[in-house]
Amino acid sequence: GAECGPDLGGAGLPPDVEQYDCQRCGACCSHKWSWPVLRRDRSDAAGIPQWMLRDDYPLMKTTNNRCVALTGKVGCNVSCSIYNNRPAACRAFVPGSTLCREAREAAGII
Known about the structure:
This protein is 17% helix and 11% strand. By secondary structure, the chain is an alpha+beta fold.
């Protein structure tokens, strides 16, 4: 929207993918304290700074239900500061899936 500045995302993507432009959303990374989850053995935590990981559970740290690796404004322009090293759950998350749509609805991004 206008409050987000110019629309720079989604150009050239297929319509079904463009509708779920992750870099203009961020809802999946900012809707619950228990996301993103790491593998139980934390084998997918390599390359993630230790300060971003919880000590008590195999989870990324969150602040107000938002993953500490998420940068930018949710619903406008976001990115993952550890994208190349993100957890397996993040890699497997499917744009447009039921979980995606639920997170978007909870964030007010329809």
